[in-house]
Amino acid sequence: MQENIRLNAALLRKRVPNLTAAAKTVGLRPATVSNLCTGKIPVGRAEVRTIVALAELAGCSLDELILKGESMTMLETGIKVVDLFAPMIQGGTTGIVARAQIGQLVLLAEVFERLRKQGYRTVLLVPQLDKAVVEEVRSVSDALCTSIDEAFAEVNLAADKEKVVLAADRAFVLNGKLFQLRERLDEAGIAPITTLLFDPTGEAVDEEDPYGPLDTLWQLDVDLAARRLYPAVSPVHSVSALIESGMTEAGHMAVWQKAKKLLRRYREIRSLVNALGFDKIPEADQQTYRRGERLEAFFSQPFYVAEPFTKKTGENVNLRDVLHGVQRILDGAADGWEVQELAYIGGLPSKR
Q: Where's the ATP synthase A/B type C-terminal domain (predicted)?
């Protein structure tokens, strides 16, 4: 794991719970602060006045705000698009931003299911027993809570506190109760637990900084959902401090860069193809389009929690196999495959 410098997002979350409003009062854009927390904007490229303003907001020194030589540990899920483009961080906070009805709760349930298999205790925190949320996620939740008192008690039940993942409704971010929970855990000497934030209303997608500082952001894509390519996690707009800060193995970073570049260009070409037709675009762009199509299809994946509905067995793909499969597609090894042959499979087979 490479060492680097990064912003202390956990400290900002603790000291400045309503960072969006606070940032605006000192002339900072919420999106800039959010991008600094995820590493999308490296700390080294930030303006000095921005870092100083954040330190003043948090009431801390620059040494406290900037973590030097700190490493982050990836929490592998076995979900291809997540682990490659926006991996979860052990003890970090991941926010899901999505319109309603495009698979947000299914993704949340699937992550719970997969982490349970890794020995995690899964705790769901919702403001009320919302039927839709509960039905989607309850079967894979070890505990269902409607208050921070209940959530605190459930975290304490875990013998290994680090093996807890908490999924919290955004309502607890907006009312400040999640901040209170983190304070109580900190006072009890409990290290930061892995947290997922979700928004069943779909309103977070319209805001610049919907959850405050995040370590990882999963942006769900309406276009992918409309074309039934699930999980509809955008490989272009989803980010993780682990990736953006360069704290991954060299092979991961290299494949991430090439895959993201290809998919970004593919999205541009796709608009032209829809408007002009495939034959009207240059030959080089046609190859990029074909490989982008195949790569996009490859990132669809059968989920365990969806097996009763899809009749497809859930697939778990380790990061090594993800990187290998993506690199082969980038190199043209799947150029002769039909796009649908790459959809909803696990790893990329060596032969068709």
A: 245-307
